[in-house]
Every structure is written in structure tokens, then in C-alpha cells.
């Protein structure tokens, strides 16, 4: 029979974090065993993109910021533990607390004014308006034979298609 109680339980997350740290070595700004990263979901709503983050128990008015930095949507904040001063008992915590930072790459054409945020029922929803608006597929002409068209001999249509090509991240 196992004699398991709150004083002898081990934190499996701390054990896993210690294993990862030992395998990959020390990393600057490595999150502590108590830090957390809120779950995120990115969805499409018509022409808009929705970024949802699960933040139950977080005071978003005081402890969360949503901003755009270097072409990225940055959501940062902190989940603070509730303090139970004077109860004198032991506390077993399975909820992670601490600072978090989540970043999401934005298309270059998104203006800051197109971004809004709302918090309801423990979920922070950030709406990025018009992300999918007028994003039509571009048709690329295919030539036959071994000779690829040179840049000098390219037509105006081909040159404009080349300028609209996606860039690698």
C-alpha cells in the first residue's frame, strides 16, 4: 500500500524541466519550473484572424499587455498566485504561476489600428482585422523546355508576380 500525501508528492513538471535542462545544458532566461505558457489557438473568422489565449485567473487589466513589436503580436503578462496568509496549512499547487510571453508573426500589411483585444470567461481574444482580405492566389506561368526566362526578357506580368513572391521566415 502506498503512503502518498501532500508532503511527499513530487512535481512531475519540475522533474521533466530538470531532465531537459540536464540534456541541453543551461540556457539563459530558461523558464523556471513554476513558469507557464498559456495555451493558444489561431482561427480564421471571415477576413479576420483570431488569436485566443487561455488565461483563467489572470487580471488582464493589471497583469497583461498586448502590443505590436517588430512585425509581431506580443502578449505578455503574469499569473500571480493567490496568497492565503494566516491559514497555517499546507498548499498543494498543480497550477503554474509566473510570467509569460507569447509572440505571433503578423503579415507586413497589418496596421496597429486593425488589432483589438477582448477578455471574457478566462479567454483573451485578439482580433486582427483584414488579415485574409484580398489574399488571392497568384498564378505563376510555367515554361516548357530547359530555358528559364531571364529577368531582362520577363514580361511586366511576370515581373509583378516575382515581386509578390513570399519571403522565407
Structure description:
With 169 residues, this protein is an alpha+beta fold. Helix content is 15%, strand content 28%. The strands form 2 sheets. Strands 1-2-7-6 form a 4-stranded antiparallel β-sheet, with no helix packed on it. Strands 3-4-5 form a 3-stranded antiparallel β-sheet. The radius of gyration is 24 Å and the shape is flat.
Share in β-strands:
25-35%
How helical, in percent, are the residues?
Answer: 10-25%
Round the mean pLDDT to the nearest integer and report it.
75
Total of helices: 3
Judged by helices, strands and strand pairing, the structural class is alpha+beta
> How many E-type strands?
7
Order of helices and strands: HEEHEEEEEH
Question: What's the topology here?
Answer:
Blueprint (H helix, E strand, L loop, with lengths): L11 H13 L15 E6 L2 E7 L5 H4 E6 L2 E8 L18 E8 L9 E6 L2 E6 L27 H8 L6
Antiparallel strand pairs: 1-2, 2-7, 3-4, 4-5, 6-7
Question: Keywords, please?
Answer:
7 strands, alpha+beta, 169 residues, 3-stranded antiparallel beta sheet, 4-stranded antiparallel beta sheet, disordered C terminus, 3 helices, disordered N terminus
Short summary:
The chain contains three helices and seven strands. With 169 residues, the protein is of the alpha+beta class. The longest helix is centred in the first third of the chain and has 13 residues, at 12-24.
